[in-house]
Amino acid sequence: MIRLYWVTKTQAVVKTLGVASSIAIFLAGGLLKFEPTVWVSRPFHDIVAFNQEWAWLMIPIFATLGSGAALYKAQFGTKSNWVNITQVLEEYKKALFDDRPECKNDGAYHHRVTLYKYTSFRVALCKYPLTGWVVPVARTKHSSLSRIPRYRVPKKDRDKAEGVAGAAYANNTMVPAYDLPIITKSSSDAERAKYSKFGQVSLDWIEKRLKKKKCDIRALTGIPVEVKGEPWGVVVVDSRRPEQIITAEELKDNGHYSSLANMLSKLLEN
Predict the structure, then answer these.
(1) 3-state secondary structure (DSSP) of residue 146
(2) pTM for the whole thing?
(3) CA-CA distance, 172 to 225, in Å (whole number)?
(4) Closest to 221 measured CA to CA, from 205, 242, 239, 236
């Protein structure tokens, strides 16, 4: 899922839940010090009596809700952090494409940068949900509705990792694919085989994509992402242009890309 979209949609609810749970625990604990008989007003008498009877259940429930809100925030991060992460991806895109004269008139979605995170399992109705996966968490010009592919990275056989995203994570190295053919329903078997081989996806994967839209991505590059020196995920750059996006030497020697990588790593620590 695109984290910025979901955090934006849920942060108010999560914040309210956390604050309300803390207040409820404070009030329930405080009311335990009072006896119902000291209250003259009937409504307050009933509230205290109810609290005396059910505090043993309410306090753990509110504590669980508060812990759940804190865990959600720790897992998904904050809106401001994901805004910054998305901005770093936009800077990647600008450095790779926007400053090239030949890309000046290209559409906004002709070149994209997507951040994938590795997870040991996937909560979805799919084959092999308990094997490793890289799943999208941020994208330039992000959309909550677009279906961004997920790729398998089998924990016990990483040679079977799918796509440049899976291969880049599995091998912890940059993986390029370029000069790919545009695949439509009328494409030949040879064109499909070429896309499958160099895009590192199966023919079944291609057929599933064709049910939704054509495969018009002609070049991709998977770049490993580390956080605190450990593999975290992958940045995947894709383009509708067939030329190789960037070489390993350019990525290594260009200080701007190194700065962006370091910035992204620092943001992901939080």
Answers:
(1) coil
(2) 0.82
(3) 8
(4) 236
